[in-house]
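TL;DR need structure tokens for one chain.
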Amino acid sequence: MLSTTPLAYAADDVTLQTIKVRADRPSSIDSVVLVENTQTQNRTLGGMLEHVSGVQSSAFGPNAGAPVIRSLSGSRVQILEDGQSILGMNALSGDINIPFDPLFTRSVTVNKSSDAVRFGGNAIGGSVDVDSGIVSRKMEDKQKDVELILRKGFNDADAQGLRVNFNDGKRFSTNLQLSFQKIGHYDIPGNSKAGVCNSQLFPANGGVNTFLADNCQKEARIQQIYNKASQPFIDQFMKENPDWADGDFSFYTNNPTSVWQRKTYVNPANPAYVSGTPSMTQSKINKDVTPDYHGTLGNSHASNAHFAVGTTYFFDQGYVAVSLDSKESEYGVPGFSMENKSFGANYDEGLPVGVVIKQDKYALEARLSSPVAYLESVQLRMSRLNNASGERLGSTKANDYQFDTNQAELLLAHRRAGPLSGMLGLSHKARDIAGSGPQLYLPDANTVSRALFLKESLDVDWATFDAGLRHEKVEHEIRKSGFKTSRNASNSRLKDRSFSLNSYSLGASAKLGQLFGAKLRYASSERAPDVNELYASNRHYSIMTQEEGNQNLKAERARNTELTGLFANRGFQLSATGYVMKYENYLYLGHSGAQMANRLPLKYWKQTDTTVRGFEVDASQVVQLGSYGKLNLSAFADLVKNKADNPDKLRAHNDGAYLPNMPTNRYGANVQWENKGWKARLSGTRYDKQKYLGKSVSEEVPLDGYTMVNFQVSRALQVANSPFAGIDVFISGSNLLDADARPHNSPLKYIAPLPGRGFQVGLSARL
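>> reply
TL;DR here they are.
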């Protein structure tokens, strides 16, 4: 910028390059990570982000994975695309994947701190914002850019994609995206069901671990069988009158004679008699309700299609952009690939569970610089999101849910006043939910939220301070429909609910000399219960639960304290973050201790005070190798504990202090090398065996830890006398050790491991 100053004074008419300034740029005090999209295998959004410390994937099979930030996900982590929420059924049902294009997504911004001031209660546990690449926010460098992507998978998806940008270099820029991914099934290194599904069904102290049996999709019970060798004589009367017998035991006796109807019978000796043997023996029944696949993960197919177009008009003070984005997905949910049938059923007639998703998004985005004297910029975002998500049992519709969401947000960034900068925001969101099908567990409902928020930042030489405040009103309205609650429901007659929410945050960062720095953040955030927590009822097969809401639930409040220490010296960077999140009225799905039809556990949405504690450590070192390029070494470690503060007796007995399916601690390392068009990366992450176990009446059974090793090598080529401006070729591999990988936070960990060793080769060609 300084170098252009003499030219600006020397010329009469100079046009300088526009520098993009976002009105809602992330705070430097939050734990914000920008993840660029490389050519690595990104099956799901959660999978793309799971190498970020503190972030794991929900891993609901290979085809559905949402980001889990510091043990929080679903309605607590706001998922956005180009700044607009795309939360739908994916927030309420874990098997519904977040629509995601792994080929053309530019980057993803993850805020691991509470982001409720900016994005409302659904960001009480953080936010994830996807830059789709559909909208140009500055004029592209080339007037025409065409990119063709072809990928071939080996135990990974085949993919094809086309991206086109054409512009006039001045006013208009249009982007077109088209992509497809498909796979018939995934291979696994061993059996689909974990070894504990056989070895630990029957504890040494007796009985059956019903929690493990249900999660392993097993019919497990102990049957008492009479021992025909336990008594020395055969009852002659019963032998002659078998209709009088009540069972096998009636035919045997300890007496050499018997008197029946005043007649004496001589009882013959029992030839099978063995002295001292017990009269009853136990038979342990262990049958698979769903198949235990070997080498292949059944019902793991997937196909995705994406089409998008976006056009931007640039003018002197900003731009206006409109876009259309359409995504379709169809995939199988492995593991409980059949209905969890009751004891004695014909399991061969089970039905595979499938998911179909269609999402259309229409969006408008505009930015105006310096509209009036005191405003630096005005930014407007509006969108219409139509998301249809359905579950299938075989070819039969279990349910379809239509989520129609209208959103609008206005951001007013005021001019910098000395060290002070900030913005005022207003947002409105209206969501309609409508369901159909025989397996409905949610009523038709409308949800409207309105919010006003303010964020300010104060920058001085040695420190930065920020503060934010948000007031939000959330209203749930029940619409008339054919939905009926179960006989076990907490709610008799569904009622409308409204919540008034207030959230604020305070933060500071400071330089502590030349090498050290520190960041401190405190946030008090509120979240309103969502429709599933308030109104759900009936069987919810995707989570294998009879789910029952409670419309009398209160809003959650989280008080988060986060401290980060920083160190940097000669290319080495180290950051360590510790956090404590104290929740009042933390919402969780608690076990009642009972089972319903098809052996589904009956669970109710409940509340208790909960504390989430954890830490994250990140380190990196850049090494310049001269003519041999550059080497980037990095490592991380993280740990999180989500524990009830003072659980009541029912919570302690049925659910334990820790909830099931909590993320385990991890540590990993990454080596990346670049030189003259070559790029290579090797990474490894160790997932430890979980120590903090929850309960579902029976205690959760931990699985062994595992190590995931991935690699990628790519080469940029210039092909002479060809129409291509450049070609990138790559090969990547995942799970190189072919580990039996079962994330502890996955609801399917006992019945569906992650895919085994896989490879993908591909090329990206630009015209």
